[in-house]
Amino acid sequence: MMLFPHVIEISEGACARAGSLIERLRLGRKCALFCTEEIMKIAGEKVLDSMSHYRIDVFTPNSLEAEALRALGERLHRYDFAVAVGGGKTIDIAKYSAYLAGKPWIAVPTIPSHDGVVSSRASLSDNGKRISVTAVEPSAIIADLDVISKAPYRYIAAGAGDALSKLSAVEDWRIADADGKDRMHVIMANLALLAANATVRHAEQIRKKEMRGLEVLLWALTCSGFAMNLAGSSRPGSGSEHNFSHALDELGSKALHGEQVALGTIIMQYLHGTDWKRTKQIMKQLQLPTSLGKIGIDEKTSIKALVMAKNVRDRYTILNKVKIDEKNAKEILRNVGVL
Ligand SMILES: [Zn+2]
Predict the structure, then answer these.
(1) Mean pLDDT of the region 56-64
(2) Residue 234 C-alpha to ligand 1 middle, in angstroms?
(3) What confidence tens digit (pLDDT) does each residue in 153-199 have?
(4) What is the pLDDT of residue 119?
């Protein structure tokens, strides 16, 4: 089964129209709104002003610990729906606690750093360890391009990096299909590729934070999320490059997800024999880091992550076809110039 948002609004000034957009969903009057103090000034107040006919309690998103979110889920039973105004953490907190309470939730993303907003999965902590759990898709996505344009550029570039990662993820799906491991759905694969290709074509406008570029980026991340929801798995948007990023996470990397998967993309495209040089060029254009050193990863950790990548989860990718040990890992990383 797949669920889609009933309302998607990606436009300038969208926060000020949040109330009338939410009205269409007929969700009731009692709303739990999640927003940090900082984001309240940038976007939360505009959303609150537009929802004057609702009874709203504001929750400050705090812990991502599963235990704390279960308690929060209990409190949400009293509300008709939740609204998350903010970045990944705020969205994951609202997404999971609303899911536990069986209530719909609305995403108002303020930072476009990855494609997880549309996803039914939430990323939480369990005693400090990152886990991915089942939750529910948003009933609406309201992205205000004026607000997004004020996000630090590093997060915007990271979002573009996550969109680019579909270039290798879809190749992985293709070989998994050819080897009889995982059937590829052409439409969903192409939807994911559409996200990557639109990002490639609009790289310059994204870098300049032009409204047109940001609009394309937000739609690209939304489409990539749709592709995953349609497939019922993250397969269309997450292949060997995400394995590499997960390995970096396990080794303690503090870089952004989108930065890591973009670097993973050029490594995996090199292994696939596809055009990694063009992707690297686009990354430069987007001002994404093009070496692991630039995101604080030393040579030893980089090699270890590439060796580990195949086994971080059960997903058939190019890493099942190319045997990687410490020696050739270094050579591969050198060949694509990321060391
Ligand atoms: Zn991703």
Answers:
(1) 96
(2) 9
(3) 999 999 999 999 999 999 999 999 999 999 999 999 999 999 999 99
(4) 87
Tens-place pLDDT, residues 24-50 = 999 999 999 999 999 999 999 999 999
Tell me the pTM: 0.95
CA 30/CA 103 separation, integer angstroms: 11
**pLDDT over threshold 80, residue 4:** no
pLDDT in tens, 61-87: 999 999 999 999 999 999 999 999 999
Centroid of ligand 1 to alpha carbon of 116 (angstroms): 7
Specify the CATH number for the domain of residue 194.
Answer: 1.20.1090.10
* Span from the CA of 6 to the centroid of ligand 1 (angstroms): 23
Please say whether the beta carbons of 264 and 338 come within 8 A.
no
Taking the centre of ligand 1 as the mean of its atom positions, its distance from the CA of residue 239, in whole angstroms, is 9
Q: How far is the CA of 84 from the centre of ligand 1 (A)?
A: 20
Provide the residue range defining the domain that includes 267.
153-335
How many angstroms does the Cα of residue 296 sit away from the middle of ligand 1? 19
Give the number of domains in the chain: 2
User: Separation of 51 CA from ligand 1 center, angstroms?
Assistant: 32
pLDDT for 297 equals 98
For residue 247, report the distance from its CA to the centre of ligand 1, in Å.
Answer: 13
Q: For the chain, give the number of residues.
A: 339
Please report whether residue 2 resides in a domain.
no
Residues 228 and 318 in one domain: yes
What is the 3-state secondary structure of 107-138? EEECCCCCCCCCCCEEEEEECCEEEEEECCCC
Compute the distance from residue 238 Cα to the ligand 1 centre, in Å: 6
Q: Ligand 1 centroid to 122 CA: how many Å?
A: 13
In angstroms, rounded to a whole number, what is the distance separating the alpha carbons of residues 339 and 138?
A: 39
CA of 202 to the centre of ligand 1 (A): 19
Rounded Cα–Cα distance for residues 69 and 73 (Å): 6
